[in-house]
Task: structure prediction
Amino acid sequence: MQPLRIALAQIAPRLGDLEANLTRHHELIAEARGQGAGLVIFPELGLTGYQLQDLAADVAVRLDDPRLAGLAEAARGMSAVVSFVEESADHRLFIAAALLEDGLIRHVHRKVFLPTYGLFDERRFFAAGDVVRATPSRLGVGVGLAVCEDFWHVSTPHLLAMDGAHLLINVSSSPGRDLASTHDVGLGTAASWRTLMRTYAQLTTSFVVFCNRVGVDESLSFWGGSEVIGPTGATVFGAPMFEEGLFTADIELGDVRRERITLPLLRDERPELVAREWDRIVAGRAGLAEDAGQ
Result:
């Protein structure tokens, strides 16, 4: 496989200004193309800003919206991941991430886990997705999309990798919280994300890409720190914190094959055992199984 250049669009979207953010996406897609990128990734709700609350319905788009089609066309010959508020046919609103390829929307992931703790109140405004799937891509590998909180649940990267993903992409709007005690680590939030990314990369023997936004939405400040992690858990690239820009990193997709042959963790997984035990646990939680407590 040829090396893949990934462009991370660590941007500060304008809250509720869909048109301005669309323009910025077009500019950065063109810039990424000029830098030889085969994949450009934007953060969670990069087309709208994060702290939307009651503005969510005003900036929501259907998947057949011509503005999304325009982005897909702009990215023709590349792969792009963009995130927006999706309105379904029955008028539910989702935080969505889409893989754009060959002028089309190749795949859409609706955020599955919506946080309602601390600073977050997403379930008040959005519906939760209920599908976690990997998808083939023009890059020649399987891609798994996730949105922010999805990666705070270990089932997400596990399902994506078992479903055929070699490249796990998490788009995020992670605000800075909990100053860490050491200057080497920085934000406690950043330290936690770094631990997650390395752990998932190693356990799934996959590339893990984290694209986080910067800037401020009302009282929330976002720290950036986007990263690319190799299938051994080693850092390939780390973007600076709090700095807006388009950052590139080159990866060798063949590293996934080498690592999975050397360390066949996914081969040795036992999904039939996991499925059986999950059935038991779910039945127990619903009070349907006599041996739920055994």
Q: What stands out?
A: The longest helix spans residues 18-34. Helices lie at 18-34, 56-59, 66-74, 155-162, 188-204, 254-262, 271-285. The CA atoms of residues 51 and 217 lie 6 Å apart. Confidence is low (pLDDT under 50) at residues 179-186.
